[in-house]
Backbone:
């Protein structure tokens, strides 16, 4: 089983390369994670470098490592609005194809919920492709379905539209100070 750890600021070039490879694997396998094919290594590395540089002080990136390589990750992005200090979005839940169906996605979701509690968040939100494997995972973890937005994005082919489903989860606790 992979070891889940928080990625600290100043990620190494190897970590960036692993994250880029993970993102490319997700896109090539059809995951709805904001990108279309072909996704180049250069573009994937640039996206991760920028995302990590721009990570909010209360933001979190968790990585799952096996054999000293990143094989899964998930991000916690605090809401930008000053009137929403209690809320964050879960995004970029990625598990390499070779490690799927092993409980790693479930483990990453439990870990990001725990990290969110430690950061003082009480409400998490996320979106997923309607009918995808991620949607089934979120439902099984007790996330509450809000609704569906038709034609929200296009599939990784860059053409075929798909619907998005929106979920939330209350974590309890009090608002951050």
Residues:
């Amino acid at each position: 089983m992979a070891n889940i750890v928080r990625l600290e600021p100043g990620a190494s070039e190897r970590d960036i390369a692993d994250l880029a490879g993970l993102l490319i694997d997700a896109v090539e396998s059809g995951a709805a994670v904001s990108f279309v094919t072909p996704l180049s290594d250069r573009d994937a590395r640039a996206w991760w470098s920028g995302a990590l540089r721009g990570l909010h002080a209360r933001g979190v990136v968790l990585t799952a490592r096996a054999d000293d390589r990143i094989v899964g990750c998930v991000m916690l992005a605090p809401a930008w609005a000053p009137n929403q200090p209690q809320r964050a979005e879960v995004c970029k839940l990625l598990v390499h194809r070779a490690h799927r169906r092993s409980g790693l996605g479930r483990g990453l979701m439990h870990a990001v919920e725990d990290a969110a509690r430690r950061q003082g968040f009480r409400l998490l939100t996320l979106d997923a492709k309607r009918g995808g494997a991620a949607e089934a995972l979120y439902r099984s973890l007790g996330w509450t379905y809000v609704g569906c937005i038709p034609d929200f994005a296009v599939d990784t082919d860059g053409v075929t539209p798909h619907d998005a489903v929106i979920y939330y989860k209350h974590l309890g606790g009090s608002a951050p100070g």
Summary: The mean pLDDT is 95. Residues 13-28 form the longest helix (16 residues). Residues 72 and 94 are 5 Å apart (CA to CA). The first strand starts at residue 3 and ends at 6.
